[in-house]
Amino acid sequence: MKHLFRGALLAAAVAAAPLGAAYAEINELKIIAPAAPGGGWDQTARSIQHVLQTDKLVQNVQVLNVPGAGGTIGLAQFVNGSKGDPNVMIVGGYVMVGAIITNKSPVNLSMVTPIARLTGEYEAIAVPANSPLKSLADLVAALKADPQKVSWAGGSAGGTDHITAGLFTKAIGVDPRKVNYIAFSGGGESLASILGGKVTVGISSLSEYDAQAKAGKLRILGVSSAARLPEAPDVPTFKESGVDVEIQNWRMIAAAPGITAEQKQALSATIDKMVKSKAWTDMLAQKGWANTYLSGEAFDAQLAKDIAATQTILKDIGLAQ
Amino acid sequence: MDTFAALSQGLMVALQPMNLLFAFVGVMLGTAVGVLPGIGPALTVALLLPITFKLDPAGSLIMFAGIYYGGMYGGSTASILLNTPGESSSIVTALEGNKMARAGRGGPALATAAIGSFVAGTIATIGLALVAPTVVDLAISFGPEDYFALMVLAFTTVSAAFGSSVTRGLTSLFIGLALGLIGIDLQSGQARLSFGVPDLLDGVEVTTLAVALFAIGETLSVVAAGARADEIIEPVKGSVFMNKEDWKRSWKPWLRGTFLGFPIGAMPAGGAEIPTFLSYALEKRLCRKPDEFGNGAIEGVAGPEAANNAAAAGVLVPLLTLGLPTSATAAIMLAGFQQYGMNPGPLLFATNPDLVWGLIASLFIANGMLLVLNLPLVGLWVRLLAIPRPWLYGGILVFATLGTLGANPSLVELGMLLVFGLLGYVLRRYDYPIAPVVVGLILGPLAEQQLRRALAISVGDPVVLFQSPVALTLYALSALALFGPLLFYVITGRKAPVGGDED
Q1: Any CB–CB contact under 8 A between B455 and chain A?
Q2: Start and end of every DUF112 domain (chain B) (predicted)?
Q3: Domain with CATH 3.40.190.10 in chain A
C-alpha cells in the first residue's frame, strides 16, 4: 500500500516536472571532477557549474577536483563519503569504466546513481598524409597480413583508444592480443609520432586530428560513430567500411548512492532543464562537444551494455582477467 | 619583412593599456603560484578559464602568457631563497642558488636568474617568431629511439650533480629510479609497486618528492642539529646586486642555457627539466672554478634558469605551429584557444595572425615586465632570510604542505611528503646527495617509456636504437661526456682541469 502510494506520488512528480513546481529546488550542489583541472572531466564539471549558475537553476555550485587513477580515486571518495547526500554529484565517463576494471577498483559505477550521459566524442583512426594506407580497407588488409607490423599510437593502455583498437582488430577476425599498441601520455606527443611517421596509425578522438586533417597533414580513415559526423562528412564510419564497431567516449553525471527516488527525480529534472537551456547548447558549440544526452532507463541500459562490452574486450586484449 | 610587420602589429595590440594591465595581472599571479610548490601555471590557467570566458580573447591570452612566464620566475625565487623548488624545472636552480643565498649572495643569485630568464625568454621568443616552422620539422622528426638517446645523454651527464662520491650519487639515483617505477605502467596498464593503495596508481609527483627532500628534509636536519648548528645564514654579504665578476660569469651560461632549452623545449617529449640538467652539467664542466660547484657557483644558477625559460618558449613552437600541446600548461592554453573558437594547428598562423602575433608580442611584454618588477624586489626578497630561523623553517613547512595539498588534497599525498621528508633527512645525515633522487624520478620513467616504444614499433628489434643519425650523435656526445676527461688525461698527461673532482 505504502509502496503503491509512493509510486503514485512519483508518477505525479514525473507528470508535473515539466511544469517545474513539483520537485524540490536545489540550492546548493558540489560537483566532483575526478581529474586534475583542465582535462575533459574538469571542463565538463565547470561547464555544468557555469550553466546551472547563469540560468539560476542552482544557486551555488562548487567544483572539487579529486584527481587520480582514471577517476577511480574520486569515485571511491564519492561512494564512501557522500552516501545519501542529494547535494553532491560526480562527473565521469567511459574512461572510468575501463579504469575500474584494469585498476581492480574496489568501487564501481553500480554503487552510484547515474543521472545522465551529457556529451560524447567519437574515435577516429588517422594516418600521415603520405601513408600508403588510403582507406580502412587498406588498414584491414595490413592487419590481416601481420597485425604486429601495424603500430597504433594512442592514449594510455586500457583507455578508450586502446579498447577501440582492440574492438576494431577483433571485428575483422584478427587476435586482439596481437594489437601493437604504443601508449603515449599526452595528445601532443602521440600526434607528433603520427605526423613524424613513427607509427603506422593513430587512434584518438576525432577532435585531436581534425585541425591536422584540415591542413592536409593527416588523413582520417574512419570514425567510430553510427552515422557520419557533421564535422567530418567525408569520413566513412567503421560500420560502412564493414567493421562492426561503434563506440562513444561519453561523459556523464551521477548522483550519490542511497538517495531517495524524490531526490533523484529532482536532480534529473535539474540536469534535464540544464541540457535543454540555450546556455548549455552554446557551451557545447563553443567547446565543440556533441550533445549525446541520454537519461533515465535508456542511459542505465546503455551503461550496462558498455560495462559488459568493455569487460569482454579488456579480457580479449589481455589487460583484465 | 613580413614577420617584423606582423610582430610590430602584434606589439601594438599587446601595448594597449588594457592588455598591459592583463599582462601585469598575469605575471603577478604567475609569480605567486610559481612560488607555491605544487600549484603551477597549468592549474592557475585552468581555474581562470571559466572566468575569462567573457573577456576579450587577446587580453586573456596575454594574461595566460604572463602567468606562464611568471610561474617560471616564481619557481626560481622559492628555489633560491627557501630551497623549496616551486616547479620541477627549477629543481636544479636550488642546488647552487640556495647555497649562494646562505652565503649572503641571494641577491646576485636572484638577479642572475631574473636577467638570465629575461635574456633567454627574449631570445627564445625571437626564435619562436622566426624559426618556429623549421624547428618544428626537426622536433617532429625525433622518434622514440632518439628520445631514448637524449635520456642516455642526460643520464651520463647527470653525474655532475653527484657531489663528491660516485657511489653515493649512484645510490641516490637508484632510489629515484625505484620511486619512478611506482604506479600504472603506461604501456601495459598494469600497476607496479602500488601495494594496493589507489593513490599510488598515478605514481609519485615530482614536486612532492622535490619539496619533501629539499625543504622538509632540510628543516628536519636543522631541527635535529638544534643548538649545535653553527651555520649562520647571512641575508646579504657584499652587494645586493650582481658585481662585475658575476656578470662576467653569467652571460655565457645564459646563452648556452638558451640554446639547450629552446630546441629541447620545442620537442614534443622534451620538457623543461632535461635542459636544466644538461645546462647544469655543461656549466660544471666548463667552469674555471669547479670546486665552487656545490658551494654556490653562479653559473649553476644562470645556465639552468636560462634553459628553463627558453624551454618554456620552445613549448609554444609545436603548440602554435602544429597545435600540439606538449606540456600541461600548453594543453590548457590550447583549451583557452578553443574557447575563443580558434583551432590551433597548422592553419592558426594563417587564420588568426593578429592573435598569434599578439600572443608572441605579449610574451616579450610579459618578459620585460617580470624583469622590471623583480629586480627592484630582489632587495626585499633576500630580507626573507633575515627572519629568525625557527620562524623561517616553520614558514617553509607550512608553505610546502599547503602547496602540496593545494594541488592534490589527499592524505596519502601528505603522508608521502612526510616520508620523503624523512628520507631527505636521512640522506643528508649520511651525506648522500639528494638531487639525483629527483633526477632519477624524472628521467627513469621517460627513458623506460621511450625505450619500450622504440622496441614495440620495431617489433623487438634492438637495431632500431642505433639507426638514426640523431641518436648516434647523441650517443657520441654521451661517450664524450663519460670518457672525455679520461681521454684528456691520457693525451696530455695531466689531470683534466674540469669536472675531474670525482676521485
Answers
A1: no
A2: 20-438
A3: 121-241
Complex confidence, ipTM: 0.78
Whether residue B500 lies inside any domain: the answer is no
d(CA A226, CA A217): 26
Instruction: Output the nine-digit C-alpha cell for A59.
Output: 544557486
Rounded to the nearest angstrom, the minimum Cα separation between B189 and chain A is 5
- pLDDT by residue for chain A (321 residues), tens only, comes to 444 444 444 444 444 444 444 455 778 888 888 887 767 788 888 888 888 888 888 888 888 888 777 888 888 888 888 888 888 999 988 888 888 888 888 888 888 889 899 898 899 999 999 999 999 999 999 999 999 999 999 988 888 899 999 999 999 999 988 999 999 876 678 888 898 889 999 999 888 888 788 888 899 999 999 999 888 899 999 999 999 999 988 899 998 888 888 888 888 888 888 988 988 888 888 777 888 888 888 888 988 888 888 888 888 888 777
**CATH fold label, A121-241:** D-Maltodextrin-Binding Protein; domain 2 (3.40.190)
CATH architecture of the domain A2-120+248-317 equals 3-Layer(aba) Sandwich (3.40)
Nearest residue in A to B271, CA atom: A189
Give how many domains chain B has, as a whole number.
1
Cell 615586465 belongs to residue: B369
> Which of B43, B190, B268 lies at the smallest CB-CB distance from A188?
B268
C-alpha–C-alpha distance, residues A308 and A44, integer Å: 25
